[in-house]
Amino acid sequence: MNILFIEDDTLLSKNVSKAISSKNKDYNFVTVTSPIDSMNEVEQIEIYDLVLVDLQLTSGESLQNLWGFKIISTIREKDSKIPIIVLSGKTEIECLRTAFEL
Fold first, then answer.
1. 10: number of CA atoms within 13 Å, CB side?
2. Alpha-helix residue ranges (DSSP H) falling in the chain
3. Could you tell me the CATH number of the domain that includes residue 63?
4. What is the pTM of this model?
5. For the chain, what is the domain count?
6. Within 13 A of 4's CA, how many CA atoms are on the CB side?
7. Per-residue pLDDT tens over the stretch 28-87
8. What whole-number distance in Å separates Cα of residue 18 and Cα of residue 73?
9. Domain that holds residue 76
């Protein structure tokens, strides 16, 4: 199973990838930590079976926290059926509802 993991916290992404991969050697993780790299990886979304995405991605010069929504929306335009697991430290109901509606 090919898994795209989009998370800007490198320690978290490393630990999650390692923990899941240790349970099943058939899981192949590709981890990207920047929004721009994420959008480039989404261009080849058809090679993935699952996407894990952090809603609160930030880029170096921009603290805009909307990257996760943009990435999910772009994935849905390319492949409406690929499973997406949303990770977020946000607790606002409206934010979570928006993510699920994408």
1. 2
2. 10-23, 35-42, 67-78, 93-101
3. 3.40.50.2300
4. 0.81
5. 1
6. 28
7. 989 998 888 999 999 999 999 999 998 877 665 555 566 788 899 999 999 889 999 988
8. 27
9. 2-101
